[in-house]
Amino acid sequence: PFFPVILAGGKGERFWPLSRALRPKQFLSLDGSSRSLLQATADRLLQIADGWENLWVITSSQIERGVREQLPSLPSVNLLVESQGRDTAAAVAWASLEIKKRYGEEAIIGFFPADHWIADQEAFARTLSAATQLAASSEAIVTLGIKPTFASTGYGYIEEGEKIGSFDELPFFHVNRFTEKPDRETAEKFLSTGKFSWNSGMFIFRAGVVLKELHTHAPEIIEPLEQQGADIYPQLPKKSIDYALMEKTSIAYVLPVEFGWDDLGDWNAIERLLKKEDNPNVELATHVGLDTQGAVIYATDPEDVIVTIGLEDVVIVRDRNVTLIVKKDRTQEIKQILKTLQSDS
Ligand code: GDD
Ligand code: MG
Are residues 184 and 304 in the same domain? Predict the structure, then answer.
């Protein structure tokens, strides 16, 4: 069977003040539906995983309780709790070790971010079926490539190499090069060649294959974990799987996908998702606007009323005792200002 693991330990700071320490982004519903991003991710994976007993989640101790509350059917033994977040390389290494211990080297594992939006569930399932077939039949680290639409500096870039074959009519290619979060200039160069896709952040492989690759390229992470277990966690280097493994491995493959994808990175993603032709603003609040356009307006309390006059391209978020007002093109800087705010709870 196939063992999907949800990576659910990030903080999602760019959705502050809605996301705060104990209520990070993956616990929120950002599209107005009743399921949080984490729950929606689990729903989607359960369609291909064949029951809760095959689904795993790795998260940090800080938000463990929230994860249990949100996913009450997840078996306790499938919830890995990190004493401290050490970024995704350690998370991938630990979860892969645990799954290998229980199911052996041939177990097929997939890692999935907890905070993505996916439009077409059926196409997603078809792609995953092809990806697991590829992982089962070769020594492969399988990535899913998204057609890029602009020179983003927030994603990994995958350069497509030779076409190797196909499963269920979905072609796959060898990866020539993987570059995590390039600078703007490099991203533009990549884009202009037409040969690059964005890394979706989902990875599929066999337990034995990824562990071998980690031994070769990230021994500083896998060896302590193997020898001393998860107690060593706080001493592990903080590195993402993209830098620790993907930029180095030579057995990466990419399946170009077209299931409609968005990394819900910051408030602007809400606009991409929810913008309606007939409304100049995206309103997740009671909003009365005069001469206001291109605004994203959110209020947690349905009784709050937000009134705007003569505004353009702003994000306004009201949550409990905090109100955020920011120009749309500067939402990335929320992370910075959070560092100067002492008493965020
Ligand atoms: N368990 C655990 N522990 N999960 C973590 C940790 C950790 O320490 N740190 C991050 N995560 C989770 C996040 O919650 C998220 O679901 C996922 O891992 C990816 O982490 P991000 O921090 O969101 O990564 P990113 O968006 O900067 O970059 C990654 O995703 C992009 C696509 O969205 C990379 O893989 C990029 O190459 C990729 O393009
Ligand atoms: Mg992300």
Answer: no
